[in-house]
């Protein structure tokens, strides 16, 4: 039987979804100051494996000795708290981010919860025309599942850190976006971790079919390099379809195929290199 924890995580993901849109610089309404507006200014990078979002997926681990069939549940959001539109000077926003990123071993008898990473932090965003900037201060901690610990001989790492970072995004066209940024770890456990990381990425939405909903082809890539791993890039690629409503009264669904190769983004296994591929559904209510 499937683990009860997996079903609970799925229900949490479905019930906690928060709206987001596909361009990097969202345009706020004419009201100059808004409290808890619906849409954040900085759109989430679609291929970033650790950006707070809602997702249910499956990952097949290619050539891995420990895992093969893995379930993925992500429950998170970027929540704008205060948003101000200065029109000619652009718009700025203070916000919060939070998320849980969990993986489940489907090959285990009870589909054990293997690892859960918890992320939370504060953000400051600024947009003007096609330019969007976000600065983040986040905490991330990692925890192993109880069943996985009971059934396996594991050396626990208990990875946790606080990180300060910034991303700059630019809409080259209505259907093309590029971004890049830098981050630094200000505290970590273990304390021996190297501090710096760099990131670049891009998104293409080259085909749009519009009826009562907007159907878009999405191709996205995210590359992140860490000083800790000698700057060898971790590469994440996502491709699929986005079903986007016209207006804000309904919800958006992304149907994606995701591929990842690099250092494991799951905190307890961050020293291991993995290669995964599998489908995912991302929901934005």
Please tell me about this protein's structure.
With 285 residues, the protein is mainly beta. A hairpin with a 6-residue loop joins strand 8 and strand 9. It is 6% helix and 57% strand. The protein has a 12-stranded antiparallel barrel. The two termini are 30 Å apart. The protein has a single domain, classed as Phospholipase A1 (Outer membrane phospholipase (ompla), Chain C), CATH 2.40.230.10. The chain contains 2 helices and 14 strands.
Radius of gyration (CA) equals 19 Å
Mean pLDDT: 86
What is the total domain count? 1
> What is the tally of beta strands?
14
Report how far apart the termini are: 30 Å
Residues in β-strands, percent: over 45%
Largest sheet: 12 strands, antiparallel, barrel
Strand order of the largest sheet: 2-3-4-5-6-7-8-9-11-12-13-14
Query: What is the count of DSSP helices, taking H or I runs of 4+ residues?
Result: 2
* Proper CATH architecture: Beta Barrel
Note the run of SSEs as H and E. Answer: HEEEEEEHEEEEEEEE
Q: Given the C-alpha coordinates, what overall shape results? A: globular
Are there runs of 5+ residues with pLDDT below 50, and where? Answer: 14-23
């Amino acid at each position: 039987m499937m683990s009860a924890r997996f079903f609970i995580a799925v229900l949490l993901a479905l019930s906690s979804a928060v709206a987001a849109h596909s361009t990097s610089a969202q345009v706020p309404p004419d009201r100059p100051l808004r409290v808890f507006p619906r849409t954040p200014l900085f759109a989430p990078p679609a291929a970033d494996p650790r950006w707070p979002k809602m997702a249910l997926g499956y990952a097949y681990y290619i050539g891995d000795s420990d895992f093969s069939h893995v379930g993925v549940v992500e429950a998170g959001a970027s929540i704008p708290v205060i948003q101000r539109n200065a029109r000619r000077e652009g718009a700025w926003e203070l916000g919060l981010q939070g998320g849980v990123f969990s993986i489940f071993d489907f090959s285990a008898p009870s589909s054990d919860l293997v690892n859960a990473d918890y992320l939370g932090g504060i953000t400051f965003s600024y947009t003007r025309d096609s330019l969007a900037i976000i600065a983040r201060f986040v905490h991330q901690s990692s925890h192993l599942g109880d069943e996985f610990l009971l059934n396996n001989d594991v050396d626990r790492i208990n990875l946790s850190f606080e990180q300060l970072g910034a991303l700059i995004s630019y809409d080259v066209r209505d259907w093309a976006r590029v971004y890049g940024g830098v981050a630094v770890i200000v505290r970590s456990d273990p304390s021996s971790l190297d501090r710096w990381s760099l990131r670049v990425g891009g998104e293409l939405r080259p085909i749009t079919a519009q009826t009562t909903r907007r159907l878009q082809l999405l191709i996205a890539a995210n590359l992140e390099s860490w000083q800790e791993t000698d700057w060898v890039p971790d590469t994440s690629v996502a491709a699929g379809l986005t079903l986007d409503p016209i207006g804000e009264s309904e919800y958006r669904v992304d149907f994606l195929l995701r591929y990842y190769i690099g250092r494991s983004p799951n905190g307890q296994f961050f020293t291991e290199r993995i290669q995964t591929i599998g489908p995912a559904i991302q929901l934005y209510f």
